[in-house]
């Protein structure tokens, strides 16, 4: 029907195009509780208003991933409703904490296009920016997805291209492998100089983590059908494969990748309790699908660490810890990311590279 | 035991009787988040405090159906705990938006009675009114249910009537087929004259909908056991068949009809994104039971449309769109309501006739 | 790995030791909604801000069990992560209502130790105290758990004790069988003298309950996998057996005992609607495990009743009703707690002894 939104196909995107995504969304204390019922999160800062105040924050932020999932969800109807695959993220920065009462809106600009040689799909690169009700940037990130061409939908052989749409000029944006530590943004007022390690749950500060160190987060959580759907709905993410068993040949709902990110981040508390805030996401790959019944574990690898210069950032005692967060189906105490063939080991669900803020 | 509430039976009702229902209930931001985790709702007005302010509302309302489910739930222990079937609704009007902090209470008056010829049950008609903490009417509606007689409970043959209760005089109230558009109530201050169609997600305004037009809302959602139970509990609805597998011979929990209404309304966003508020429910029939595992789709038919006279209603740019909202088990792209025999088509779960407010 | 928390073993506890538990937690309106979606609670006071104000409370408390579960959950990583069994509670008092915005922290003192004769485990007694952001005591309680010795973990034969740890001196604290009614704390301002029995849902006041009276709460709720996990996570309770099917040989997640307490308390509304507040927990035993698919019912027995002296407690019209709350798997209309052998009847899941506040 003409009034419903079929989503965009590869042919619908042009480099430079700006899309204002629908459905501004106000974050509330209800989201904090819902998040806490879905993920076993125990980071003291988003858990406790008193703790947040004790580290200099005027208001009580929700977890950064709440903001990220909401901001990301807005882009789905326009960018990835007809996606074959979500290929990657880059240059995601959290510009300021999201607090209850904030209303988030998202805008995307198409920054790259590359039609696949099969002529049936192509890669779309977008840079998305979430702003709050004051028009301030809250989160921005780049993302690239493989999107069907309109003519190629369906599973049959390639149909003729009725409009004879030519492939667009290939434009591949330059994206940083990782956000440079000097570009990380420390929330206004954040001061870890009188940080309460007992309340936070662990004694480890920045200097206690060695680059190359791996941490097995030990705990596992078994996925259920309704939990991942509740999460995905909460972020107003409309991708059909998460909600509708009739939308997939195997009759199983695919768990939203962001659900695995949040679950792994929550599990990482055990060993990384002081990595209180997420400052940036450098890269992320959803390497394998997850389903209800799978039991998810996580391990982390320390990739980098640095003390943030308080002169520039106005932060006191704040360090940045760059981590690889790996979610696995079934526990892998060997913490093996890739097999000998260089491919991801079979149980790996998520490989996320991100920056956290931690007492220096 | 004498201290527990067995619910009322048909013999317990008299025309003119007023029942003050128990359990006043305060609505919170937690309810908004819970609703958003249970239904894929994306209407901009209840989603965004900023959007609500931009259309002239002083506070940020929750979805009208949150208020309706709560107000309705209060009547269950007194009116329909021993119901055989929920037969219909009529004349439901939303008098003012419900905002977090509002406390809802419900009162019902018995407006009709008709004993069935089998002598084992009868139809009870009630008019229910929900008020807030200031005593203002928030929602009112009429409803009729078939209720067991006390003597006829159980599945065996008709037992003798020990009290020899005579059938009451039959009183059938006159109820309007639909709320007249001129009786619709527009929330104070609502002003669609500078409505942001981009933020709302679709460009269609009142004039873009033709009477008789049908809209297939495309998306489907598979029901899970815990989600409908969580919803039903949230509204403090106590009907046993929704929670207790031992209360039904087939060992399956029946999905609360209101869950299907909310789900279908949320799905209708895709094609009706600007039908921001529910102003009235004219009629509703739950035509078939739904269970966990069913995948629910929805389609709508435009029944009527009218521009509301701003002189009378103090509304600017507000139109009213009357819709039939049909939920189906499995997608029916043919959008067939009834078979050749005039009966509802097999997959139809819900046939709801309601008024929405939309930019004129 | 050295950075993760393996929990304490029996050898790690000494009498007099004080443990400051991690993760302060702010209670919000989101918790009230989440609780309402998980339990069929209808007590008017926590349901309605207007009702709470009408009985003299300045703010709108959440259910006492929300505070209890949160405060209790904080102790799990330090006290009972390696527990064989949760043996009992005693002397739990609710010192003041918890309201949204309160941040709870918990501290425990070890008050007793007794190594088991098998040398593989021992009983640890702790007294735990939850305080709010102003340092005021909110809840305190004693609890004893059987905890593995480090050397005995695993299911194989007893391994040698490498450190040759001797059994500690046995110290068994004296704990009251029940909190004395004169030590119950009535919330500041609570005044039941103009209590609205209609809004509360039942007419029964203190004097209507006879010691020895039993009440069958009639209704049953079937447990689902995701609901008990959502609850347990909400309280940041980290016990693995509730979340991870791989953590148990039978591949089934054990339902958190506190979930059964909250469910039974909610079911007890039907017959005890005016027992609005929980003032103390005298004792509690989780007598049998519960799993998804079980249908839970509840019955109560009146153990004691007393009018609280308003001179001492500043309470008007407040009575205290001491109840035994029994949760069962499957309905037991005979309300049999124990078999002829003195052991708990097979279907009994929970035997809880607690004090409530009710209009006198």
TrEMBL record, chains A, B, C:
So what EC number does this one have?
4.2.1.148
Give the highest taxon in the source lineage. Answer: Bacteria
Identify which top EC class this enzyme belongs to: lyase
Q: Which Pfam families match?
A: MC_hydratase
Q: Which UniProt keywords apply?
A: Lyase
SUPFAM superfamilies, A to Z: Thioesterase/thiol ester dehydrase-isomerase (SSF54637)
Q: Which GO terms describe its molecular function?
A: lyase activity
Extract the PANTHER family matched here.
BETA-METHYLMALYL-COA DEHYDRATASE, MONOAMINE OXIDASE-RELATED
Protein name, please? 2-methylfumaryl-CoA hydratase
- Source species of the chain: Nocardioides panzhihuensis
